[in-house]
Amino acid sequence: MNLYQTAFEALPLGSIKPNGWLKNQLHIQADGLTGHLEEHWADVGPKNGWIGGNGESWERGPYYLDGLIPLAYLLEDERLISKANRWIEWSLKSQQENGNFGPVRIETVNNDVDKSQDWWHYMIMLKVLTQHEEATGDERVIPFLTKYFHYVKSMIAERPLSGWAETRGAEMLLSILWLHKRTKESFLLELAQIIAKQTTDWTDIFHDFPFWRKVEQWDWRTHVVNVAMGLKTPGIKFQLSGDLKEKEAVHRGIDSLMTYHGQAHGMFSGDEWLSGTHPSQGVELCAVVEYMFTMENLVRIFGEGRFGDILEKVAFNALPAAISVDWTSHQYDQQVNQIVCNVAPRNWSNGVDANLFGLEPNFGCCTANMHQGWPKLTSNLWMTDGKGGLAAVSYAPCTVLTQVGSGATARLLVSGEYPFREEVMMTLSLDRQERFAISFRVPQWCSSPSLSINGVSISLDIVDGYAKIDREWFNGDDIHLKLPMEVYIASHNLYAVSVERGPLVYALPVKENWQRIVEREKFHDWEIYPVSPWKYGLISDAVFEVVTAEVPYQPFDAAHTPCRLKTIGKLVRDWRMEGNNAGTPPLNPKTDGQPVNELELVPYGSAKLRIGEFPLIGKRTAVKQVQK
Predict the structure, then answer these.
(1) pLDDT (tens digit per residue) in 593-613
(2) Contact between residue 401 and residue 411 where contact means Cβ atoms under 8 Å apart
(3) From CA 64, how far away is CA 83, in angstroms rounded?
(4) Model pTM?
């Protein structure tokens, strides 16, 4: 039994280091919730079961570590590394003779967990341990995992996957295949086949998608986080079988999710279950970071630019939208059209506090799990092609250090402040000249990309969203990639529209009045009320003027955004609130007698109150854009 080769391979944690705005983003995260959560949230505090306490011992500790570990090593932050090591050391020392490890009992507030035995929380900690090994080379990890998977193989028939573990079995497959790549132990592929068969048949679900409407009753297969995780399952099964139906299921699944539940920020809705396309339905922050991780894996497996496009759209829009600019509060659910964040009933299954900004709004899973988003994006900005070459996944500023070609040491400096700018500059340093390929991702939204090397224009042959340049490379080569960003108007239900430019979605910011409703030592809970009008429609033949400014320390702040769009619109008289939300954007907006107003749109992720899906005033026409 052999594995099918993936298109790309991930670089070990630490091979890519963030620069520019992305590094600042990680520092903000370290200064906020991720760097101080243990001291201010008991669920990952000293009593957590994963460090020997008698408190929460299911998923929350491992979730937290899944983001803390990469953050600590990407920033080379000794304080955070020390925090993480306490958890790692306890886990490694907890292994029993039979190979099992971890807390001896399950303590959790989740009522849907079999507390006598569960596999799900181990799946997360396995991902934590693989990252730890990549960052440190800790020689204990591989024999530890080998012993554990022998235990799993001996027990899995008697105690098969169920509940959360059954829907999320692909997360264990990732660690099994990671270990097999290093040990070549045949029993691991046998175990992988067993786990794949016990995992929910996501291939069937996504190939012929059955959930066409908003779901209003509990089902494991429509829980939004399960869906976000589950979409990687056919990809991982493809590695085991090579069956192209798995790849087809992924694409059909994405198409169906966006048709029946898609929203302007690139995610599908889910508050808590798949919830349709209405722009006031929410999407859970856990789903955002897990969908990002799924896209990182799918681009690795299949090598298609589409998955990078989705990854960027979600990362640069939905992720920052749900987290305060200083990383001291977050939402459980965000809304595309979010005109108020307050304690109030809404047309979703989650609690009345689900769209607050706070420490633990609605439920604590996102408080624990939100931390992986930016660090894992950083770790997957570039990959290898398995043949000595490099492949770009996203062009956020970073430095890549790896081996290329026949073993030359390469250092690639990526600058340009993408996605806030459309030009990407790369400088290649080599310890010797070397022939190898660099595969540049060309986003689907870009109609006229251009590439030059040392000032010489290079023609691009784009296949599946990638342009491969295979050549002899020299130390000091300068690479200049230009990805012109044009304003694009995306259509939604009832002719409503959203505005995009490059990977960024633009929204109308509503002025915010933050009111603290729960005060704590550091991480408070906030309601946000609007203090400016929100019910604007966009005029169909309006011009969009692009205005740029210096990229600040925190670019996802509406008050200091590095790029904005100026356009015009009108107040819509018949656009009402419905159930504490903005109602459906009117199909025929009433604007007679209303003056034309100048509007400034900002990146969606920078506005916590916003309109991201607008009624369209007049017939849709070609977009006009001017640059300033």
Answers:
(1) 999 999 999 999 999 999 999
(2) yes
(3) 11
(4) 0.98
